[in-house]
Design goal:
The protein is mainly alpha-helical and 209 residues long. The protein has helices spanning 2-10, 17-34, 47-54, 63-87, 100-111, 119-132, 137-173, 180-188.
Length: 209
């Protein structure tokens, strides 16, 4: 008697709280299987599979094409800079040639007669003489000493040029950027017609204000 009553009591009646809880659990399971917003709706992939999918190449797959493209861009940039140094377009010149200080230095060096601009032709003549004087040791020594003397004189002339230019730069701009001395001396030792950027004046003597 007691067992039958207990079995009857444990059977849930339709519409009871227990029946509602089981329906809610079943509905939640169906929603999870069907997929809900914010949830995948599919099995979570393994870690190795996910890591392989997230990998991205650090360099292009076609490295040869990438190198060719980089070389083409570099060549285009150099051509643009070379044309700028020919026509005086300072916006496309290399960074070392930009700015009012560098422009003033170029104009000052180009306006001056520098012994350095004759150094290469004179040195070439001395080398030729030395080749023909190999059979005459005394003459070869004299030629070598004369070449050393030319080098010393051109260096002294470059120092004198820089000291005068430095005074002008300080008076006009207040300070001299680092590397300006070497920039001026290297330009003074170049042939005038081969200097880049091109001199703005075709004649000597036109010093900048």
């Amino acid at each position: 008697m007691f067992s039958r009553k207990r079995d009857v009591a444990e059977v849930p009646h339709p519409g009871s709280a227990t029946d509602g809880a089981s329906d809610a659990v079943r509905d939640a399971a169906e929603i999870e299987q069907a997929g809900t917003p914010g949830r995948k709706g599919r099995p979570t992939p393994k870690r190795s599979v996910a890591q392989a999918a997230n990998k991205r190449p650090l360099v292009p797959n076609d490295r040869r094409a990438a190198r060719q493209q980089a070389k083409a861009k570099l060549r285009e940039q150099r051509n643009r800079e070379y044309q700028a140094m020919l026509n005086g377009d300072e916006t496309h010149m290399p960074a070392r040639d930009r700015g009012p200080v560098k422009r003033y230095v170029r104009d000052h060096v180009d306006a001056r007669w520098n012994l350095g601009e004759f150094f290469l032709p004179v040195a070439f003549v001395f080398i030729l003489i030395n080749l023909f004087a190999t059979q005459l040791p005394d003459l070869a020594i004299l030629v070598l000493l004369a070449l050393y003397l030319v080098v010393l004189v051109t260096i002294v002339d470059a120092v004198v040029m820089w000291l005068g230019l430095k005074k002008r730069l300080v008076a006009k701009f207040g300070e001299v950027p680092r590397g300006t001395a070497m920039y001026a001396v290297m330009r003074a030792f170049q042939l005038r017609r081969s200097r880049l950027p091109r001199p703005t004046s075709k004649k000597h003597g036109n010093y900048p204000a």
